[in-house]
Amino acid sequence: MAAPVIVVVGAGPGLGAALARRYGREGYAVALVARSPGRLEELGTALQAEGITAGWTAADLTDEGALRAAVTRFGGFSGSIDVLHYNPSVFRERDPLELTAAELLQDVHVGVGGLLTALQAARPFMAAGGRVSATGSMAADAPWHRAASLGVQKAALRNLVRSIDATLRPDGIRAVSVTVNGTLEAGTAFDPDRVAQALFDAARQPEESWRVELPYDG
């Protein structure tokens, strides 16, 4: 039997790497998508050195064609996508008097819009039991005015995940976002490994008591 597959979109050296390792330890093959080819290759080869099956493709998440092609390639190679995780966001330190509408839309494209592209590409390879997860943030509830676009991204992401879950639920596919109510920092309650475990657990909730949004308070 082929290994289950997780696609991690926005896989960086922090939480994305921790989540890839958590699923890898569970026997999943890990497919990574991120913008930086060098950092992506570094992460992928490190995972392989740890005995985790890993593949990767660099893509700008605002390039719909490139992102769609990357996810489709992973699905076509493996034959299935069992978990799609969306991780990216943009931190731009601009308050509402400094932030332009173009910048806001650009940030929302990365933090939210890319999930639509990735989901639509992944859906043909997802079956009942498949899961979609996303990294949420306390910025959705308590935005910092000096990074106004981040709160918009995370509030919109939570909303979109609810719509995704309602759309896919009849087919046995569920979606969840985890609101991280703290700042990621190694060695704390918000260590990336601990947050990754919370995301892993959220995607494995019992179907009969599924919650579309879960808080992680450390």
Question: What brief labels describe this structure?
Answer:
SDR family oxidoreductase, Rossmann fold, SDR_fam, NAD(P)-bd_dom_sf, 7-stranded parallel sheet, 7 strands, 6 helices, alpha/beta, oxidoreductase activity, 218 residues
CATH class: Alpha Beta
* Count of individual domains: 1
- Class based on secondary structure composition and strand pairing: alpha/beta
Question: Helix fraction?
Answer: 40-55%
Largest sheet, order of strands side by side? 3-2-1-4-5-6-7
CATH topology: Rossmann fold
> Got a strand count?
7
CATH superfamily: NAD(P)-binding Rossmann-like Domain
Which stretches are low in confidence, meaning pLDDT under 50 for 5 or more residues running? none
Our measurement of the CA-to-CA distance between the termini, rounded to an integer number of angstroms, reads: 36 Å
Radius of gyration: 16 Å
- Largest sheet properties: 7 strands, parallel
CATH architecture: 3-Layer(aba) Sandwich
Indicate the proportion of strand residues.
Answer: 15-25%
Helix tally equals: 6
Please state the overall shape, judged from the principal axes of the Cα atoms.
globular
Would you tell me the overall average pLDDT?
97
Helix/strand order, N-terminal first: EHEHEHEHEHEHE
